[in-house]
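Per reviewer request, we include the raw input and output of the structure prediction for the construct analysed in the revised manuscript.
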Amino acid sequence: MESPSPSPLKAARLPLRFDPAGLQADLDAVGGGEWTAHFNTQFFEGDWSGIGLRVAEDAANPMYAGTHHQNFADAARLRDSTHLRAVVESFHCPLRSVRLLKLAAGSSIREHRDYDLGYDAGEVRIHVPVVTNPDVEFFLDNRRIVMGEGECWYLDLNLPHRVHNRGSTDRVHLVIDCQLNDWLRSLIARGMPEHGEESGFELFRRLVLRDASLQERLIAPTGRDAFVRLAVETGAEQGFRFTAGDVEAAIQAARRSWLERWIA
């Protein structure tokens, strides 16, 4: 049995590229009734849905992609989709779940971790954007990763991540869960590391640390919800664009950091 060695990469654009027009043609052939709402309803706001292209044979929901499932089979939609199938067949490693995941315009996925995914665990998730827009904000470990249509990305989703689609069009990714083997390790090693951009909230936070008047203003509200609303409002006044979810994620990150120091 192959034993995975740790990867220092959080995100990398892999040396594979696919034809966005072909992928979008396959997407256009999908019927509206084929989309299933994501089962993690507490993780998102708006419309987050998907289509199972390679599905666990024993799963009650085609969206399930848990590591406890063993047997996966291609669905009819994958067999009928020439370009999507070509992407999947280009991966020379054991495949598990394959899905199209759609985050509708104006929708968001709250910060969370996929603890069963990761290089160390021997299973990773690959993203291939099919359609996206410049106003999609994907944050991994509080750094924005911008992924273009037709690109292929490795992401360490064991780290905290969140997404907000601020655009007027849907964002759809082809998401492939792969078991690590030597071929995939080599592909990831040849990828272009991406460290991402700081979030608007992080830039605003640093401004607040330098500005006593902003500190006084943000101390005023009582209650977490009131603080979050005021932070978003004050940030916008200062020219920083971020959401309540970004503030909540920063609060959670600070809490995790405090706990880690306390436990150590």
